[in-house]
Amino acid sequence: MYSAAAAAASPPRRDFISVTLSPEEAVGGGGYNNSKAWRRRSCWRKWKQLSRLQRSVILFLFAFLAVCGVISYTSMGEPWKSLTDKSLDDQRTEPEIPGLKLANPAVLPAPQKADANLGDDPELSPQKPPKPPHVRRGPSNLQIKAPRRDVRLKTRHDTSRVVEEPVQADKEEKMEKSVISWRGAVIEPDQSTEPPSSKIKEPEKPSSVEAEDQKEPVPINERQTAVIEAFRHAWKGYKDFAWGHDELKPLSKSYNEWFGLGLTLIDALDTMWILGLKEEFEEARKWVANDLVFDKNVDVNLFESTIRILGGLLSTYHLSGDSLFLEKAKDIGNRLMPAFKTPSKIPYSDVNIGRGTAHPPRWTSDSTVAEVTSIQLEFRELSRLTGDEKFQKAVDEVMKHVHTLSGKNDGLVPMFINTNSGQFTHLGVYTLGARADSYYEYLLKQWIQGGKTENELLEDYMRAIEGVKKHLLQRSQPKKLTFVGELAHGHFSAKMDHLVCFLPGTLALGAHNGLTADHMKLAEALIETCYQMYAQVETGLSPEIVHFNLHAQKGHKDVEIKPADRHNLLRPETVESLFYMYRFTGDKKYQDWGWEILQNFNKYTRVPTGGYTSINNVQNPSNPEPRDKMESFFLGETLKYMFLLFSDDIDLINLDKYVFNTEAHPLPIWVPA
Ligand code: DMJ
Known about the structure:
Blueprint: H1 4-9, H2 17-21, H3 23-28, H4 35-49, H5 52-92, H6 114-120, H7 149-158, H8 166-177, E1 180-182, E2 185-187, H9 207-210, H10 222-241, E3 247-249, E4 254-256, H11 263-275, H12 278-291, E5 299-301, H13 302-320, H14 323-336, E6 350-352, E7 357-359, E8 366-368, H15 369-372, H16 376-386, H17 390-404, E9 416-418, E10 424-425, E11 429-430, H18 437-449, H19 455-472, E12 473-475, E13 482-484, E14 486-488, E15 491-493, E16 495-497, H20 503-512, H21 517-535, E17 545-548, E18 559-560, H22 573-585, H23 588-604, H24 632-646, E19 658-660, E20 666-668
Antiparallel strand pairs: 1-2, 3-4, 5-6, 6-7, 8-9, 9-10, 11-14, 12-13, 14-15, 16-17, 17-18, 19-20
Helix pairs in contact: 7-17, 10-24, 11-12, 11-13, 11-24, 13-14, 13-16, 14-16, 16-17, 18-19, 20-21, 20-22, 21-22, 22-23, 22-24
Bound molecules: 1-deoxymannojirimycin.
């Protein structure tokens, strides 16, 4: 601290810098008699002996040289500066992955830096999404806290199977703090999604409770009203003939039991909440409170019960704030945990939730890759809500392990993984369809859920999309539709499952979260293809699988359908992607396409006495051959995404606050406290 009294008492400090500049001081400054001083004095004398003209010339020369010096310094500095910038850029695009050229370069441009694309096409700006023509009710102030830091760090290092090199860990740590980058995706970690603090926290509250700033409700429009009507009709069938059972059989007016856990009812809970169906919701809630019992000697599929039941309960808890749903979620979560007790910690496919035992299917010790890697959003959220790290630890270990496995092809994964060895099996077959689909979806969504800090997930996702471009993308004839085929032992097949239609939505979500705008271009091309999978078919409904024509043939469309593939199970993937595309672009054509699809569901799958049914033949409008089954995801996903697609309220499940699990149950994105 500066004190005025102390300053006055102390002797003045001599500043000898003035000696060299002031001739008076230099001359009269006795006592400073060394050779340097002498040389300075003699220079001064010589200067004094020069004529005025000579001095002026010398001064002018000095001034001239000084100006030249400054100019040449700044112009030399530029190359150095740009060199430094370039080397930083190079570092940002690490790690380089060989062979990332597109299989069909004509389809899409090579990946570019995100910010480079921004200038070209502001509509596709990943950082600033285009303003859709929505009625914005203003941002809500949801504050969703990330899980305790110690949970996440421990899981990263505790794994017994994955031994991390300290250097790698160090590198990761550094990456987490600075710029996240991967081949063209340069992302500054969001301020609002910084890693959480290491403080131990109380279990978290539901997001609805923390939502401040409630806005005026946006009125429901005509198309949304039509979705509500469709939902009510489906619900009527379920209520009348299948109440409390897993699935409605609308034609035989009965039900199908799979796990015996009221699957449709639980899957539909948050849809009812979102659609504003209070009465129906209350009735269903009563059933959950009084009749939903997990203490049952029954085998359930880990993946299906996680995404539909655990996911459904968690999202309903968040939307309603009703702790009943969290209690039920904890119960089923705990009962599913025995699945992870395997030699490799890759979970078994089936669990007996009453006995607490787990096992693989009878014919193999393999699990499906999509299944073991698409339960993470739910278990991680359960850890965050309960403060119990075991759920997250178990599923993070699976991801960590899969990250290190060999047998991938440019980020594309095989379809099976062995629960004993932990290795991929049935190598050489790569698809974005059944058995692999949601692996890719959950890489991106976990990264988003966790606040965009878990770089391995992003790396694997980006690598995989490059793998898709390199090996699986082709264009059909005659319409030149971009589609995602399959690769079996080096042979390309032009087969595409309807399930793959989740991909445009996922790509668009990635672009919205700052990934390269190139992904958005691919999303736009693929959603057109998915729409054509409906539009080119006689009923206007997509079959389960299509084959695309690679060569133009007179009278042939792009889409060919084999007899065994012409069923439609009321699946959601195309409508799901239409929803994302509309949210991010505001292009009404996506709503119109969804509207056509809803009308065709009504025309060909609606059962007059209540409910909707899967059909066997999308190519026969006069007899689509009803299958007598309404899948739970029709209520859980298809109708929910329809309702959201037709909505102009971007705060109706805001995609910057929620991430949908693969069964369309929205879970909060974590942000720091
Ligand atoms: C749903 O259970 C989920 O969307 C899952 O990821 C894929 N299959 C069905 C819907 O088609």
